[in-house]
Amino acid sequence: MTLLKIYLNNTDKLEGKTLWHLILERVKEASLQGATVYKAVAGVGKHKEIHTFDLLALSINIPIIIEIIDSESKINSFLEANKEYLKETFVTKSAIEVVDFK
């Protein structure tokens, strides 16, 4: 199995929708095994800015991580089909072992 991680911000948008939501829609359309969206407390991105919740400025610009799990071939197909959605994100891919307790 393969774990795909996509790093972006909650404020990133494409086609008038939040990017993380569009990516989840694409995961569903591709019938991938599963995906989870995590909100981080803070982070530093490629532009070297700190992204966090700023109470004084009343702004919320926080990092989001999407984890997707499936076979390597399905993950690779997903990446190829969704280049447009992923061009402003940071993506990692790694082999994982799935532990099944059934």
Structure, described:
The protein has helices at about 20-30, 70-80, 85, and strands at about 1-10, 15, 15-20, 35-40, 40-45, 50-55, 60, 65-70, 90-95. It is an alpha+beta fold and about 100 residues long. It has a single domain (about 1-95), classed as 2-Layer Sandwich (Alpha-Beta Plaits), CATH 3.30.70. It has a four-stranded antiparallel sheet with strand order 4-8-1-9. The protein is globular, with a radius of gyration of 15 Å.
Write down the overall geometry: globular
CATH class: Alpha Beta
Largest sheet geometry: 4 strands, antiparallel
The ordered string of helix (H) and strand (E) elements is: EEEHEEEEEHHE
Query: Strand order of the main beta sheet, please?
Result: 4-8-1-9
The overall average pLDDT, rounded, is 89
**Structural class category:** alpha+beta
| Radius of gyration from CA coordinates | 15 Å
Helix segment tally: 3
* Count of DSSP strands: 9
Oligomer: single chain
The helix fraction, in percent, is 10-25%
- Give unreliable regions as ranges: none
CATH topology: Alpha-Beta Plaits
Please, how many domains? 1
Percent strand: 35-45%
Query: What is the first-to-last residue Cα distance?
Result: 18 Å
Indicate the CATH architecture: 2-Layer Sandwich
